[in-house]
Each structure stands twice: as C-alpha cells, then as structure tokens.
Specification:
Layout: H1 20-33, H2 36-47, E1 50-51, H3 52-59, H4 63-75, E2 79-84, E3 87-92, H5 95-113
Antiparallel strand pairs: 1-3, 2-3
C-alpha cells in the first residue's frame, strides 16, 4: 500500500504577523490599484502582454494616459517592459499581482451583480 504524501510544512512567513514594512508595501500596491484606469491596465496585462497602443485600445484611455500609468506601475515594480524592435511590450511582474487583480474584480462583480458571496 503506497504511503500518502504529506503536505509540505508551512513556511515561517505564513504564520508570523507581517512586518510594518510589509504592511506599508502592500498598502502602496493597493493605492496604485485604486485608480480605475490603472486597474484596467493591470487587468488587461493579466490577460497577456501588450504594448501601449494595445492597452489604450483595450482600456479606452488615451495613449498618453496609459503611458503615464505604465510609468508609475513600472517604477513600483508591478509591470516590466521588454523591447520588441522599437516598441515596448509590457507584462505583470508576478502571479501574486495577477491573482490580486483578478480577485479584486471578482469581488467587485459580486457587489455589482448581487451574485451570492463565496464562503
């Protein structure tokens, strides 16, 4: 009879209270997500890489506004550009941010539509 695989032990950081620096950093991420256009840009990037023109089309925002939002997001380390010829193609820096954006919008969907909450 094969042994049942035991789950990996939780890391220390999963049980310790976050530090003041961690709370401050998380709050700054939430502050960046508080702008609807910026959140829309992040949601679009959660679907896949894009350049400024593509993001402007997807969000309905002016190209200059999208560029300014991307600059703030890049400085905060939330998006990263890569060169493709003369254009910059942007992507999210990590899966944590992708999940945060998707979850925030999923929660908003429940509030807007009145769909029942999940446990």
């Amino acid at each position: 009879m094969p042994e049942r695989e035991q789950p990996a032990p939780a890391t220390k950081s999963q049980h310790d209270s976050p530090s003041g620096a961690q709370f401050a950093t998380a709050a700054s991420v939430f502050a960046l997500l508080a702008d609807p256009t910026r959140l829309h840009v992040l949601w679009a990037l959660a679907q896949g890489e894009s350049d400024v023109t593509g993001l402007a089309e997807r969000t309905g925002a002016a190209r200059t506004a999208v560029s300014q939002h991307l600059a703030k997001l890049r400085l905060a380390g939330l998006v990263q550009p890569r060169r493709e010829g003369r254009r910059a193609v942007y992507s999210l820096t990590d899966g944590h941010l992708r999940r945060l954006v998707v979850e925030a919008l999923s929660r908003a969907d429940h509030q807007v539509t009145g769909e029942p909450w999940h446990a």
